[in-house]
Amino acid sequence: MRVMGIDPGLRNLGWGLIEVRGSRLTHIANGILHSEGEDLAMRLMSLHAQLSRVFATHAPEAAAVEQTFVNKDAVATLKLGQARGIALLVPAQAGIRVGEYAPNAVKKTVVGVGHAQKRQVDHMVRLHLPGIAIAGPDAADALAVAICHAHHMQSAGRLAAALARAQ
């Protein structure tokens, strides 16, 4: 199964695609989309078009997006939320249900510590996906979201199988 992770951002939207076969994770692709345009509407449209092309090119079967954390700047948080809307919309338009994970949950799953630093996340992504060339910090975060979603899907699958055996 191909799993797309998305780290939403208005200026830079990170994405990462992995393949999951059993417990084995393989890197497929990753990148950073840069919004273009003078105003917010044009920047959002630019991100939508670019992310739609990524989905059309790579055909993921599952997707996950990092949830927005609220910071001190309410305007920046609102704009990030709008970019996050694009990150949720594009997979939904492709008919894919989207998992959502808090930043601390992603870090806890990938690093083992909920308050890990960005360099620790990058390091652990490289351990999970040996030999990978990462496009930048936003792409590393997106790959971490994909890894987190893969682990949660595996856990849910094991739980469903155990419940089926118990009946």
TrEMBL record:
<feature type="active site">
    <location>
        <position position="138"/>
    </location>
</feature>
<keyword id="KW-0479">Metal-binding</keyword>
<dbReference type="GO" id="GO:0006281">
    <property type="term" value="P:DNA repair"/>
</dbReference>
<comment type="similarity">
    <text>Belongs to the RuvC family.</text>
</comment>
<keyword id="KW-0460">Magnesium</keyword>
<dbReference type="InterPro" id="IPR020563">
    <property type="entry name" value="X-over_junc_endoDNase_Mg_BS"/>
</dbReference>
<keyword id="KW-0233">DNA recombination</keyword>
<dbReference type="GO" id="GO:0000287">
    <property type="term" value="F:magnesium ion binding"/>
</dbReference>
<dbReference type="GO" id="GO:0005737">
    <property type="term" value="C:cytoplasm"/>
</dbReference>
<keyword id="KW-0238">DNA-binding</keyword>
<keyword id="KW-0255">Endonuclease</keyword>
<dbReference type="InterPro" id="IPR002176">
    <property type="entry name" value="X-over_junc_endoDNase_RuvC"/>
</dbReference>
<keyword id="KW-0963">Cytoplasm</keyword>
<keyword id="KW-0378">Hydrolase</keyword>
<dbReference type="Pfam" id="PF02075">
    <property type="entry name" value="RuvC"/>
</dbReference>
<dbReference type="GO" id="GO:0009432">
    <property type="term" value="P:SOS response"/>
</dbReference>
<keyword id="KW-0227">DNA damage</keyword>
<feature type="binding site">
    <location>
        <position position="7"/>
    </location>
    <ligand>
        <name>Mg(2+) 1</name>
    </ligand>
</feature>
<comment type="function">
    <text>The RuvA-RuvB-RuvC complex processes Holliday junction (HJ) DNA during genetic recombination and DNA repair. Endonuclease that resolves HJ intermediates. Cleaves cruciform DNA by making single-stranded nicks across the HJ at symmetrical positions within the homologous arms, yielding a 5'-phosphate and a 3'-hydroxyl group; requires a central core of homology in the junction. The consensus cleavage sequence is 5'-(A/T)TT(C/G)-3'. Cleavage occurs on the 3'-side of the TT dinucleotide at the point of strand exchange.</text>
</comment>
<dbReference type="InterPro" id="IPR012337">
    <property type="entry name" value="RNaseH-like_sf"/>
</dbReference>
<feature type="active site">
    <location>
        <position position="7"/>
    </location>
</feature>
<dbReference type="GO" id="GO:0003677">
    <property type="term" value="F:DNA binding"/>
</dbReference>
<dbReference type="GO" id="GO:0048476">
    <property type="term" value="C:Holliday junction resolvase complex"/>
</dbReference>
<dbReference type="InterPro" id="IPR036397">
    <property type="entry name" value="RNaseH_sf"/>
</dbReference>
<feature type="binding site">
    <location>
        <position position="138"/>
    </location>
    <ligand>
        <name>Mg(2+) 1</name>
    </ligand>
</feature>
<comment type="subunit">
    <text>Homodimer which binds Holliday junction (HJ) DNA. The HJ becomes 2-fold symmetrical on binding to RuvC with unstacked arms; it has a different conformation from HJ DNA in complex with RuvA. In the full resolvosome a probable DNA-RuvA(4)-RuvB(12)-RuvC(2) complex forms which resolves the HJ.</text>
</comment>
<dbReference type="GO" id="GO:0006310">
    <property type="term" value="P:DNA recombination"/>
</dbReference>
<feature type="active site">
    <location>
        <position position="66"/>
    </location>
</feature>
<keyword id="KW-0540">Nuclease</keyword>
<keyword id="KW-0234">DNA repair</keyword>
<dbReference type="GO" id="GO:0008821">
    <property type="term" value="F:crossover junction DNA endonuclease activity"/>
</dbReference>
<feature type="binding site">
    <location>
        <position position="66"/>
    </location>
    <ligand>
        <name>Mg(2+) 2</name>
    </ligand>
</feature>
<protein>
    <recommendedName>
        <fullName>Crossover junction endodeoxyribonuclease RuvC</fullName>
        <ecNumber>3.1.21.10</ecNumber>
    </recommendedName>
</protein>
